[in-house]
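ugh ok fine here u go
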Amino acid sequence: MPTTLDLELAVAAAKVVRDLTALKAGESLLVTVDSEGSFRAAEQIAKAGEALGGKVLLAYHSTPVGVGKVGERFLPDALKAAIPQTDVWIELNAQWLGYSTPYEQALVPPRRVRYLCLCGMDEPRLVRCIGKVDLKLQDELQNRLVELTRRARSMRISNAAGTDVRFENSPERPVLSEMWAHRPGARFLLGQIAWAPIERSIQGRIAFDGSFYGGAPADLPRLSEPIVFHVEDGVCRQISGGAEAKFVRQWMESLKDPNMYHEAHVCYGLNPGARASGICVEDERIWGVTEWGFGHQGIQFQAGGVPAVSHLDGICLASSVWQDGEQVLEAGRFVHPQLVELAARLGK
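structure:
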């Protein structure tokens, strides 16, 4: 019997497997989902892979407590073995497996596995954030913003919650457009551009006023007041705010890893279907946000970061961004002449 969004979900799943990962007949496809994730979404993606001639394994497992290496002890051995031995891995876990040992075995360095992170995505999110998005137009917008960012040497980001941070970019480091998973390596839901600034150049305040995600128990999807990271030379030296900031301080102290305070990356959010939902992968892509990661730094950034036991992400809403003094984003709205028309064609 049909259920809600059946047809729309089928379209989104086909775009994920056929377009975003370019799965070919005979390739192995691993779809992972934990018990807090959407099995229906994972099943539909697996079916789309089967229809394309893939050799499909749908792995459903209990939800780990925490992300990265923190949650690793909860993972089944069979899952750990499967992850490095596939051509395409699509992850829909609620508690993501990124930066765990099997993740690193598969992707550090990238050899075979094309990984697409869709963590926490369920049926409505897949439809909004992939199924209804014009992929060609979205790709054009992201490529233009990538080029502008790649050319920028000095940047400033602010928002009404108190963010005011400056940093320098390195021309040797990539600016990653999260769109296609066509080559071995780690890729994430479309609608995000990510890079690693020169770590020692990062100075200022980063005020997370949207949401904060460190994996269970440190997922805070609805912040009641900003959590402010005071950053000097790329390292968080102080965390200020109210009760939620106090909780984050205590949680980070409990990890007993000083590398968790090191900045790992910064991102733009620009998925036209994303909305505040309490799911990290979607919240990071709300149109006009910036997002900062601290802790473990992925190899894809080709930067100077340090390994850490886990990773956290925080969202700064309605951001304003300047590149070499020229404003690109104003309170969450693109104002650069190369971006305004494309944003409008995407409904923004």
